[in-house]
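re: ur question from yesterday

yeah so i grabbed the chain u mentioned. its 606 aa long if i counted rite. heres the sequnce exactly as i have it in my notes:
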Amino acid sequence: MSDEAFKLIIEGETEVVPCYGNKSLLAALTEGEVFIEANCAGRGTCGKCKIQVTGGQVVDSDGKEAAPVGNNVYLACQVYPRTDVVIRIKQSMATDKGIISLGFEPEGQPLLRKAVVRLQYPSVEKHYSLQEMLCQALGDEQPITTRGVLKQLANLVELRRKEITVVLVDGEIVAVEAGDTRDALFGVAFDIGTTTVAGFLVNVNARKVIATISENNPQAAFGADVISRISAASTPAGLASQAAAIRKCLNRIITKLCDVARVPPANIYAATIAGNTTMTHLLMELSPASLAAKPFAALFNSVGPFSPDEIGINISKVGKVVVLPGIASFIGPDTTAAMLAVNQDELLTEGLLVDLGTNGEIVIGNRDRFFACSTAAGPAFEGAHIRDGMRASAGAIENVVIADIVWFKTIGDGKPSGICGSGIVKAVAELIKKKIITATGRFNYRIADNLPPELARRLKKKDDKWEFVLVEGAKSATGVDISITQSDIRQIQLVKSAICSGIEILMTKVAVGEKMPVFLAGALGNYIDIDSALVIGLLPGFSREQIIPVGNAAGVGAVKALLSKKNLDRCHNISRKANYIELAAEPEFQELFLRNLQFSEVQNEV
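ran it thru and got these structure tokens back, copy pasting raw so excuse formatting
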């Protein structure tokens, strides 16, 4: 195809994106740093990168007129420009990763602090360096070793300042400021998930989160899961693109947080970052290739604090970025932070942590030892690989009740556009309870004659495959049916079996008490209907009373580490003490996985 240059104009945006006849519109958007969801990384199989063409002409890969998938709606990865093109993109809001508590109790020496000192300048009789003068005034033997801090001190000394403020991060002097600036002391904590990035602005003096912002992770343009992102980062250009995308996302969040709280970014002196292993590698522009091949080893689990300039984060130039330590290849700093959040490292008896996000991390243990594993849990729980799935944003069905009729609720209470993770789990559980789905996960079409008419007509065969229609096209925002398909059910079976089997294997490693608490974390963990999770067999053998939703535990842990040196040390201890279990290497895993594919709650098949 021709490499002729065209303009790609996005409605509502001021910038024009260049595009070329031999590159798909998805490629043009991504290269222009306009990121839209593309779970299959542009292979045309997920159907998520929909755009509406409102002007110009697009063609397919053979140069022929492209066939739309809706009213002037096309998959961006499958069409190419023949002229200048005007498009409309539906911008989805970020998934809410769960409520984070606003106040935190003091826990030892703060990681970030300011101290006001009055200077006693040297004299002929009492001769010492200006560096020593500051250390004496501070009452601390910590020397100033960086040229930057010494330069700041020289400027203040030249003005004969009597009172100055010393800024310390993890005991290190990072800056000296004129006068008393103790009130201007803020930090930011991030939880970088595969699907969602959440940021928390913290008033360190008040020990409170004063603003929270979340955004969709723009790396979704490179694929829904970590394997797709690792593949997309296999070239230097691909790695650089993903690093740039997540760094710009963090900076957008910082800007929004500061605008909301009216805090200058220069008053943010530290950032703590939790995220899964792949996300932290990509943030630091370090190749995650070693995660994709045996023995699936991470390049690093722990890295020392570094300057924000190294990754281009817009906080104080003298501040520090702290990436929390991870545990193993696919058990990253987000799991460490979640364990800190629920104080799993201080429990006297066993506790179970299950983090349900795009990936599924499971940890069992107490203050003496931990066992941890990771499962390929969750693109399905985030709406990926589900035909009508979508993220938990406006228009997503989040709750379903199936009685004689079908009742549903959407986020924002508007017309439904698709179904998100919590809605999928609830819908499948409701279909199980109605015996419309059998124990094997098949649609029980023979039961149709015994169903209320409203339900019977929703059980349809389309393209020789059965599905259950939740919302008919006339009532949906897209104009087409929103259904649970046979393929969707298989995806949920695979996910629930992986998590259930992982839990069962970890439970063989320790002595489990009858009332062991189960901490349910993550985006789905916060909003999932627990009774429905029990119905589909996601949490094997536990009672409703044992399960404790804990919201965005990774975010809470990142904030706790920001506020306390002791808590940061606890993160490193957690990382060192945890025992990683590779599920695929466990002899019983395959048998458990096949067994747990069943929906055990259905007793009889028709």
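noticed a couple things. Residues 92-96, 602-606 have pLDDT under 50 and may be disordered. also DSSP finds 15 helices and 27 strands in the chain.
anyway ttyl
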